[in-house]
Task: structure prediction
Amino acid sequence: MHQKEIELPRKLVNKLLHHAQLSQEIEACGFVGKDESDNYTCYPVENIAETPSKRFLMAPEEQISTMKAMRDKEESLFAIYHSHPTAPARPSATDIELSSYPDAYYLIISLNTKGVLEMRCFQLLHDENIVEITLTMSEE
Result:
């Protein structure tokens, strides 16, 4: 069962926000892996959607190589992240419909916040139930 609050290291949060800022016109996306010692790795993946400014579709070959890299590092899939260039940091109908990893968290970064980035975390369940998870940040 998912927790109602998770703590992410500042270094990981900075990487996720930086990736979103580098891709302001499109939805940046990728995976976050986590090992048994609570070390996190950010894995950016190319967005190949037909309209990447409005949705994300991860490149299949990069998804496969990322999953292999996580396995090789003895990490599990912790989260899927993506940004919303012009929308709030909450799941869109498409995000919910296409969610395919019920055990992963979904981190959504909004660039539509007048200079202050916003990142929120959700658990997307197949019955269209959406649970927001409180994010806190550690200095690790």
